């Protein structure tokens, strides 16, 4: 993990966006374009930090962590499902197979928690007992483990808000066939189980996570796409302090974006206002947490790539142009 001083020095050069002649498409965190053969896509993972569906700043090395950690997980989950990754020519870049994405985000949840409008705890504390088409009992407490992990679904938005969908509506609204929906739920739970086991070995709790799937445009093979088990797509807690903090009625120690979300909640943020820009101190804390997750999961030391990133990335992907 890098020192605070190293991260502070990198803040002015954090990767906001990658530039190519003619421009390229931009998602919340990733910039991307289709390669000349039409069969592959270049994904450039930036340092943009998005919470509450709002861009609130840049976190140095965040993009590198997301890209390299996803690549590590893609390699270690091929026994469960194939994925779209072809190669990683640069710490911030993945070359992937072109797919037709399923227009749903699949979230597996092992605990009742969260602060966003789509989280289980937010809906539960507001009085709902049937959430995502699943019935929850009374008297649950925040951050409590569920009897078994559950699968939920929401619409997938590139720039806007994701909306939850009752499980029965996935097939009824023709997002997926019954066969593919059943298969995706089974694979999502298997991925989550493996993710929890590896996280436990590294001293973390994998609380919940998002998966995205797509069909290969040529073979129609179902693939895992986007990212997997990163601090952007997942919620991680420190396993060693969890029990004591819960007993003391203190929030678990977060190793993900929830660190930033909770800070905004403490400042009185609500969804009717645009959040203020993130402070340098919080940027440093977020960057270090992301790096820690990478090291705790993979067992490898984080090796920072150089900044500025534009010229480095241009060289690394030149052969794929």
Structure description:
The structure is a single chain. With 321 residues, the protein is of the alpha+beta class. The protein has a single domain, classed as 2-Layer Sandwich (D-amino Acid Aminotransferase, Chain A, domain 1). The protein is 32% helix and 26% strand. It has nine helices and 16 strands. The protein has helices at 4-10, 62-76, 120-125, 167-172, 178-201, 239-247, 258-266, 280-298, 310-317, and strands spanning 25-26, 30-34, 40-45, 48-51, 54-58, 85-90, 93-97, 99-101, 104-112, 130-131, 134-135, 144-155, 164-165, 204-216, 222-225, 234-238. Strands 8, 9, 12, 13, 14, 15 and 16 form a seven-stranded antiparallel beta sheet that branches. The protein has a five-stranded antiparallel beta sheet with strand order 1-2-3-7-6. A two-stranded antiparallel ribbon has the order 4-5. A hairpin with a 2-residue loop joins strand 6 (85-90) and strand 7. Helix 2 runs parallel beside helix 8 (280-298). 39% of the residues are buried.
Keywords:
16 strands, 9 helices, single chain, 321 residues, D-amino Acid Aminotransferase, Chain A, domain 1, alpha+beta
